[in-house]
Specification:
coiled coil, about 90% helix, 2 domains, mainly alpha
Length: about 290
């Protein structure tokens, strides 16, 4: 009789634990909400797509600006090379003056020889001097046109100062730096999206495990409920069934194990959700330091 009373006490305690388990089964919504929260943020995905489009436009604009800068640098280089032409013009002028002086000296020597030499020698020397004069004239004619050089010099002077162009290039460089900082923001968003994806995979595995443990707990509770009902009927009939007692004890033990596994799965799911958040918080704290 004392054994039956003890068994009834254990059955009552098991029923209380089953009731508590059933109540806990009726509250899984926070976990489901956590699963829904793990879905990728639509605004974040849209922002990532916008940043990708802006990055593509930035690359195209950067290519066009680089080509434009190369053309402008080439133009500035040609202008710088043109600035040395006035010195070359002065050199040509001095060379022309020297040639003219040499031509005058040759003509004077020719006249002097013509007045002093005999007719035969005079003809030879006159021919030599005339050839020298023709060579000097050819050198003068082969020089660059001074008028054309003067016109080019005036054109170089009319181009004026390039300060406006330099200022424009500085503004475009500042705009490029700003857009490059936006591309760095795109890299940060991509890293954040990868972290969310990894978090979703980890949390999905934890929730799958939790769902399996919950199914196991439900099955164990159903089995325990059936055994308790059969044991109650046998007790009302006044018939002692040892195998029912053993089945009830085994069902209770399985229910306890399933409850313990469910608790562990819930803890694992919560930790998988908190892990990335704590990692992000530690990373932000390290950057602040």
């Amino acid at each position: 009789m004392s054994q039956i009373e003890e068994l009834q006490g254990r059955i009552s305690a098991a029923m209380e634990r089953i009731s508590a388990g059933v109540e806990s089964l009726g509250r899984p919504q926070p976990v489901v909400a956590a699963i829904e929260d793990a879905e990728p943020d639509a605004d974040l995905v849209a922002q990532l797509e916008d940043e990708r489009l802006a990055n593509a436009q930035l690359e195209e604009r950067l290519k066009s600006i680089k080509a434009k800068h190369a053309a402008e640098i080439e133009a500035l280089t040609s202008q710088t090379d043109g600035a040395t032409e006035p010195a070359e013009l002065e050199f040509l002028r001095s060379e022309l003056e020297d040639t003219r002086r040499a031509l005058s000296e040759a003509q004077e020597r020719l006249d002097a020889v013509a007045s002093e030499k005999e007719p035969a020698q005079e003809a030879e020397e006159r021919a030599a001097m005339q050839a020298e004069i023709e060579a000097l004239r050819a050198q003068v004619e082969s020089a660059e046109d001074i008028a054309a050089l003067k016109a080019e010099l005036e054109q170089l002077r009319s181009r004026g100062d390039n300060s406006d162009l330099v200022e424009q290039l500085s503004e475009e460089n500042a705009a490029l730096k700003s857009e490059l900082s936006n591309s760095e923001r795109l890299s940060e968003l991509q890293a954040e999206l990868e972290m969310l994806r990894a978090e979703r995979v980890s949390h999905g595995a934890a929730m799958s495990r939790l769902d399996g443990d919950l199914q196991r707990l439900r099955k164990a509770n159903d089995q325990l409920r059936m055994v308790v009902a059969e044991l109650r009927k046998a007790n009302e009939a006044g018939v002692g069934e040892p195998h029912l007692i053993n089945s009830a004890m085994l069902a209770e033990l399985e229910a306890l194990r399933a409850q313990r596994a469910t608790d562990a799965s819930e803890v694992h799911a919560v930790l998988s959700k908190l892990g990335p958040l704590l990692s992000a918080a530690n990373l932000a704290e390290g950057e602040d330091e």
